[in-house]
Amino acid sequence: MDPILEISGLIKTYADGTSALKPIDLDIRRGEIFALLGPNGAGKTTLISIVCGIVTPTSGSVRVDGHDIIDHYRETRSRIGLVPQELHTDMFETVLDTVNFSRGLFGCGRDDDHVETVLKGLSLWDKRDQPIMNLSGGMKRRVLIAKALAHAPRLLFLDEPTAGVDVELRRDMWGLIERLRETGVTIILTTHYIEEAEHMADRIGVIHNGELILVDRKADLMKKLGRKYLTLHLQDPIEAIPPELKDWDLAIDETGQTLEHHFSTEEEQTEVPQLLREISRIGLEFTDLNTRQSSLEEIFVNLLQERR
Amino acid sequence: MSQSAFPRFNLYGVRALYLFEMNRFRRTLWQSLAAPVLTTILYFVVFGNAIGSRIGEVDGVSYGAFIVPGLIMLTVFTQSLSNASFGIHMPKFSGTIYEILSAPLSAFEMVIAYVGAAATKSVVLGLIILATASLFTTIQVEYPLLMFFYLVLVAFAFSLAGFIIGIWAEGFEELQFIPMLVVTPLTFLGGVFYSIDMLPDPWRTLSLFNPIVYMVSGFRWSFFGTGDVTIWISLAAISAFIVLCMALAWWIFRTGYRLKT
Ligand SMILES: Nc1ncnc2c1ncn2[C@@H]1O[C@H](COP(=O)(O)OP(=O)(O)OP(=O)(O)O)[C@@H](O)[C@H]1O
Ligand SMILES: [Mg+2]
């Protein structure tokens, strides 16, 4: 299927000489949820701002739904919704007015049903006649999302949608993203909460110092780089690892009661049963066992460390 | 491709932005009307009635009526500049400009919406002041259609200039700078209270270098059929000013100057 977003050779050097994006190449598939991860200053916002037309690229090309973002900016921008990182809202306008305004700005006539659905989906319907300045920070963020959805975009950018947002709103947001995905909207989100990417994304890109250092399906990424840990709680403490188990990558803690083994997720099918058989063969009794998979957070930290 | 082609002109977008600006004016209707109207009334009372009764006639018009077109122009100049510059500066300052920059709106459409809204307000204000003035003195407008057309043209020209100032300005002080330090003095020296023929040389000749003279004169011409220069020179001056501002605006959008990084 043709990608909804094609970025090739995109470079951005700010006027002060900051090189925010080294050449970036990235294709986003229609309907996927793509999480862009990276530390502060990596270039996430810059990348999004270029696609949306807020920042001018230094060189390279970006196409949305087959249209160039500069030559055919009306075609591309009318398909895009943006929820910015910072809480930039008007003050005196009511929630309903500001959402209707956004819809008009993006070239759509009034559609009260659509706006009502959007506001209800974000639990803003009761607040529709409130001036925005009366709302809390979390509510303002919902307003920004409602504005971005007002013209029913096909490609939605969420720049750190859950920064400074409570658990409930974060759950709501995840639900909303899920519902949007069902209607075929492509979503690109940046986040510092790796659990968020882990929870929602189909693919993950890691950007660091303006370079896209990795793009992969979440499941493959976890498989390739994720590690699994098998922990065994022994009935009786042991002083050293029995010689029969020397060839296994095992570690014992100071109590002598917990044995830990790590293995890559690719090996798990064969390795774990084999190890367990070996352990019972030498007569080691255990009371409990559990396995744990490394989170994206750990993968991410490892990745960045490798590059230093 | 999932959607049909976007219309050639984003009418809904222009309308949304125009109404947004008009709404902003409506919210502050009383402040924005009260100050200019009150100031103008003071001028009428002090200059038109108190002093004017001793001056008699200028160019065959009673002094009280003579100053009306110039005072309307003064208000239209300053209000157009400040409204239009504030209108575009505010979203830049608050950050909400991100939405306008990311919208499928051409530079031309953006200018129409912002400048159109600011000019609308100035025209309304100018007419209100004219109505107020007619309570204090008898004025008849000789060429009402021309007067209205001229008012719209001036409001548009200065709103366009204000829009450019709003983009250029980095702080709120700079928004005030040009209206206060350039336009107001030039207007006072530009024949609002006197006909430049009344000035001795070299002041008379120097005044001819003040572009405001031509703009005030044209408006007065539409009232009384006389002015410091003929109406055509005034119209040419206004048109030249508009062309200059448009060229500047075009350059701003082409380069993204102070709008985009
Ligand atoms: N307007 C600007 N002028 C100059 N440099 C800028 C500008 N905006 C961003 N930068 C620089 O570009 C780099 C990338 O910034 P960007 O905002 O894209 O990072 P980010 O990944 O979004 O970071 P964060 O997670 O903190 O939001 C940084 O080094 C930043 O300092
Ligand atoms: Mg950012």
* Radius of gyration based on Cα positions of chain A: 24 Å
What oligomerization state is this entry in?
heterodimer
Strand count, sense and barrel status of the largest sheet of chain B are: 2 strands, antiparallel
Number of helices of chain B: 10
CATH topology description of the largest domain in chain A: Rossmann fold
Instruction: Give the helix level of chain A as a range of percent.
Output: 25-40%
Distance between the termini of chain A: 37 Å
Distance between the termini of chain B: 30 Å
Count of spatially separate domains of chain A: 2
Question: How would you sum up the global shape of chain A?
Answer: elongated
Q: What's the tally of helices of chain A? A: 10
Per DSSP E runs of 2 or more residues, the count of β-strands of chain A stands at 14
- CATH architecture term of the largest domain in chain A: 3-Layer(aba) Sandwich
Mean pLDDT of chain B: 86
What count of domains describes the coordinates of chain B? Answer: 1
Strand order of the largest sheet of chain A: 6-7-8-3-9-10
The CATH homologous superfamily of the largest domain in chain A is termed: P-loop containing nucleotide triphosphate hydrolases
Q: H/E series of chain B, N to C?
A: HHEEHHHHHHHH
The distinct ligands, each listed once, are: adenosine-5'-triphosphate, magnesium ion
